[in-house]
């Protein structure tokens, strides 16, 4: 391979890193979230998920939770790429649906929180109004919903518009050059796997499950809760994310800085708790969608 080809590849790669929210949580993050969620599915959810999954999943939701990242740059799905995140005004450190939920062309309702409502509605209407014709691909609805509930919990998926959710903040992760968004999508989880879990994702999942049934037990019912008996409630998750982004992600991570042990060790507990919350909330959202008894309030 010639010098110029290498250079082109490097440029292409650099460009990819600059695209807002290119990956969401990385593959490990999304797998972990969906694995955690699976442990809390009701019987109804288990059987509906099995029915909706594509054959390639071999019955395991976690196997397809990164699907929206794999297809988002294909021509046929490019419309979906704005649905992975929602950016907020620089340094406001708060989120407001009507102000913030739009894409870069100011099209309203093109953002992650709207997408969560969208796919919840598609699944719910197909499930609860058996008579109505099915207008959407519910296999895709399930995969998008499972992925986006993960994404909205990644603090920098609700970051500042000016730095593309940290994508344009170049930093070093130990010796490696990367950007702040990628640190939160991938590097913290990858370093944790290597440092604490013998590079074994199952061990990390188990450690988080142990905290869900121990350390965090008293908080879990509040995590599940959805105000006003709504089926999905992504807005508070987005508010939490931007607040954590300001308090932890952006803090001491200015352009050009090197992030090492002190950043890693203080942020890892935040990441692990967000992964746990995503899993619990994905399960409870699906459980509400596929609850067999029709709620009086919704008739
Ligand atoms: C959210 O933004 C809209 C539109 O900019 C504004 O009218 C509304 O007052 C804001 N809501 C809150 C709670 O700040
Ligand atoms: C809602 O889902 C449909 C089908 O995937 C898609 O075409 C549309 O862009 C989605 N809108 C949002 C805001 O998620
Ligand atoms: C629904 O979407 C899945 C995943 O993209 C695809 O494999 C399947 O063929 C689609 N089903 C229909 C009926 O279009
Ligand atoms: C990872 O840990 C799990 C749980 O202890 C174990 O069953 C599995 O064999 C381990 N995987 C590898 C590749 O070591
Ligand atoms: C479990 O909770 C403890 C106490 O809050 C925390 O220090 C630890 O990092 C957590 N571990 C995981 C895997 O979340
Ligand atoms: C939520 O639903 C429960 C049980 O269906 C009901 O008792 C409660 O009043 C509802 N709350 C609101 C705010 O609608
Ligand atoms: Zn994503």
From TrEMBL:
Class of this enzyme: hydrolase
Substrates-to-products reaction catalysed: Endonucleolytic cleavage to 5'-phosphomononucleotide and 5'-phosphooligonucleotide end-products
Protein origin, superkingdom: Eukaryota
GO MF, any single term: single-stranded DNA endodeoxyribonuclease activity
Keywords: Disulfide bond, Endonuclease, Glycoprotein, Hydrolase, Metal-binding, Nuclease, Signal
SUPFAM superfamilies assigned to the protein according to its UniProt record, in alphabetical order: Phospholipase C/P1 nuclease (SSF48537)
Signal peptide: 1-24
GO biological process, one term: DNA catabolic process
EC number(s) on file: 3.1.30.1
Family: Belongs to the nuclease type I family.
Subunit relationships: Monomer.
Official protein name in the record: Aspergillus nuclease S1
Source lineage: Eukaryota, Viridiplantae, Streptophyta, Embryophyta, Tracheophyta
């Amino acid at each position: 391979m010639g010098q110029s080809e290498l250079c082109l590849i490097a440029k292409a790669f650099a460009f990819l890193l600059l695209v807002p929210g290119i990956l969401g949580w990385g593959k490990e993050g999304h797998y972990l979230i969906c694995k955690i969620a699976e442990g809390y599915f009701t019987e109804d959810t288990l059987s509906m998920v099995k029915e909706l999954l594509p054959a390639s999943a071999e019955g395991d939701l976690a196997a397809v939770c990164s699907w929206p990242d794999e297809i988002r740059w294909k021509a046929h799905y490019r419309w979906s790429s704005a649905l992975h995140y929602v950016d907020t005004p620089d340094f406001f450190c708060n989120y407001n649906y009507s102000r913030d939920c739009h894409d870069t062309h100011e099209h309203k309702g093109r953002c992650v929180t709207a997408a969560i409502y969208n796919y919840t509605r598609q699944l719910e209407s197909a499930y609860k109004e058996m008579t109505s014709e099915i207008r959407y691909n519910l296999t895709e609805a399930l995969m998008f919903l499972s992925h986006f509930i993960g994404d909205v919990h990644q603090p920098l998926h609700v970051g500042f518009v000016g730095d593309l959710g940290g994508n344009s903040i170049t930093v070093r992760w130990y010796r490696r050059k990367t950007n702040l968004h990628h640190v939160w999508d991938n590097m913290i989880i990858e370093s944790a796997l290597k440092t604490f879990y013998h590079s074994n994702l199952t061990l990390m999942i188990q450690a988080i499950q142990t905290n869900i049934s121990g350390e965090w037990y008293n908080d879990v019912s509040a995590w599940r809760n959805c105000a006003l008996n709504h089926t999905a409630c992504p807005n508070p998750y987005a508010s939490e994310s931007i607040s954590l982004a300001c308090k932890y992600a952006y803090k001491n991570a200015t352009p050009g800085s090197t992030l090492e042990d002190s950043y890693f060790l203080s942020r890892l507990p935040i990441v692990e708790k967000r992964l746990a919350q995503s899993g619990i909330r994905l399960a409870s959202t699906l459980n509400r969608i596929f609850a067999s008894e029709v709620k009086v309030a919704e008739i």
